[in-house]
Structure formats: structure tokens, C-alpha cells
Amino acid sequence: MSVSSLNGAGAPFVTKIGGRIGALISGITLSPDLDAASIKFIYDAMLEHKVIFFRNQSLTSLQQEELGALFGSLVPHPTVSSASGTKHIFELKARKGRAANTWHADMTFMESFPKASILRCIKPSVYGGSTLWANTATAYSSLPLPLQEFAEKLWAVHTNNEYDHTDLIVERDWEFIQWQANIFAAKVYEAKHPIVHIHPETGEKCLLLGQFVKRLVDFNLPDSRAVLELLQSHVTRPENTLTWHWQAGDIAMWDNRATEHRAIADFDYEERELQRVTLSGGTPVSVSGEHSYQLINGQTNPIWLSDKTGAWTVRDQV
User: Has the keyword Metal-binding been applied to this entry (predicted)?
Assistant: First the structure.
């Protein structure tokens, strides 16, 4: 991969950093002023390698938004307010060791979820705090043929609500649980997606799983959990993943339709700050040609968590 020139400098180049996923892009300084050849180079590299990285970049929040807009329409998070002074920045500002330490693709509780995300590291944790990515296309292609055929028939409901709060309370503090229920899930979204969807640009078959899956359609809960665990285990096999150790100024850009990612909450009470923009995507299509669709679209969540630890109540009683 190369282009003839880049802002008067030598051609950029790609260095693979994982056998199945991930590449480092060198020779490009990211800015809202990238030319068409550079934009195409970056986007094509993302499609091929699923997640790409840039070191030593210097972007402001506004420039990050403007950069993202070069690759498509930006979409804000439907329930979490954007960072102050921005329209589309999702802020990941960790306190008390908090991180999204479960495997997921961004906002799959929406019928049309983001096609890509761009994440900028402002302040890495002193230690730990890495992020994992997994390739859901190779996860599908490495399944045994009978399991591929089985998975292609399955559909699942994705939601931003109904987490296993017991596990979260063990791992985190009540303040975080309140944020997740009273802000992140203040409005409920649920979408029905095929477990295997056709990537609209590469044509690859990709698994569509992750933490937002509530259950498989037409399955009882124990069987749903067993099947989902089996399929998810193929996504997160070590050879199908990579680990990125953040430095200040790093930028990651990934194909949200062909990956899952997970932050590692191993940085104790150290601070960690990143900012993300997401690009609007289309509606997934199953192998048989059926489209995903929205089941619940921003319905007010009736459940509210009060200040008292462990206290759940109905919202209209607050």
C-alpha cells in the first residue's frame, strides 16, 4: 500500500502488527487538511487490517471531529452527552480504574450502528490500561463449517440496558453503576441483528456479538448463553486479537462492523483519558438478505438507581 505523495513528504507505509488484525501507519500527520489520496489510503488500510494506529499525533478535540468528518458523517452517542465544547466527542475519562472492560462493538443496540470509530489518547495510565481488538471476520471464517451454517441462521437482540449488575457491583463502585443505569441506559434502545452479517464494503461474513447482546431470538436463556459463549470464544481467541499499549498522541481507527474491542481495567486508581468520535453506518444485512431493525427506540427507562447503595426504584417515583 502506498500513495505517490503526502503533503510534500514521502509516501506513507503500513506495518502489520498482528497476523489477523492490526497495522501501524507511518508517514502521515493526521489533520483536517488531509488530501483525497491520504484519506483513501487510510480508509483502505482500515478495511484491510480492521484497526490501524498512528503514533505521535497532535490533534485537539475540534480537529479530531473535523478529521473524523473526512471519512463520513459523525454521530454522537444517543444517551451520553458529548464532551464540553464538542458535538460528537465521546469522552473516556477514567477515575477509580473504570474502563469498558467487556468485549463489544460500539452502539450495536442501534439498528444502524457506527461503521467506524476514531480514538485519541490524551493521557495514558501510568501502567496498564491497554485496549484489545478482535477480528470478527476471521472469527467467522475459522469456525467449523457446520457451526458457520448454524450461526448464519441466528438472530440476537442487542440492548444498552439490562446488564448483570451483580457482577458490576463486585468489580466497580456504586457511583459507576448509577452512571450506567441513570445516564447510559436512561433511554432504552434495542435492535435485532443477525449473528452473521455481510460487510457492506469488503463482502466478508462477520460475527456480530459482544456485550450488548441480550439474548438469541427464539432461544431459552440457558441455551442462548451457551451458544453465545461458544461463538464469542472464537472471536476472542488470542491469535484473533491484538493488544495496543497507549502512548500520549496515539490515534486508533477501527472498522466497527468487523471488530470487537475491550479496554483492560488493570490500572488501579490511575487516571486515563481518551476521546472518541464515531462515523455513521448502515443497517446490517444477514446472509439471507434480511435487514436488522430497531425494536425499542429511545424509550425512557422506568428504572432509576437512587443514592442509596443497592436501591432500585421506578423512575416516576423519584
Answer: yes
Four-point Cα dihedral 232, 234, 237, 241, nearest 10: -80
- In whole numbers, what is the pLDDT of the chain averaged over residues? 90
Q: How many helices (H) and strands (E) does the chain have?
A: 7, 18
What is the Cα Rg of the chain in Å?
20
Question: Quick one: cell of 294?
Answer: 430497531
Phi, psi dihedrals of residue 24, rounded to the nearest 5°: -105, 130
Q: How far apart are CA 252 and CA 263, in angstroms?
A: 13
* pLDDT of residue 2 exceeding 60: no
Amino acid at site 228: L
Q: What is the pLDDT, as a whole number, of residue 181? A: 80
Distance CA 73, CA 65 (A): 10
- φ/ψ (deg, to 5) at 180: -65, -40
What would the pLDDT profile of 271-314 be if each residue is shown by its tens digit? 999 999 999 999 999 999 999 999 999 999 888 877 766 666 66
Integer Cα distance of 36 and 43 in angstroms: 11
**Domain positions in the chain:** 13-311
Q: Residue holding cell 439471507? A: 288
Question: By C-alpha distance, which of 209, 187, 183, 191 is closest to 91?
Answer: 183
User: Quick one: cell of 261?
Assistant: 474491542
CATH 3.60.130.10 applies to domain 13-311: yes
Among the listed ranges 128-132, 185-189, 208-212, 250-254, which one has the minimum average pLDDT value?
A: 185-189
Taking residue 136's Cβ as centre, other Cβ atoms within 10 Å add up to 32
Sign of CA dihedral 278, 46, 210, 97: negative
Q: Encode pLDDT of 149-183 as tens digits.
A: 999 999 999 999 975 444 544 555 677 777 778 88
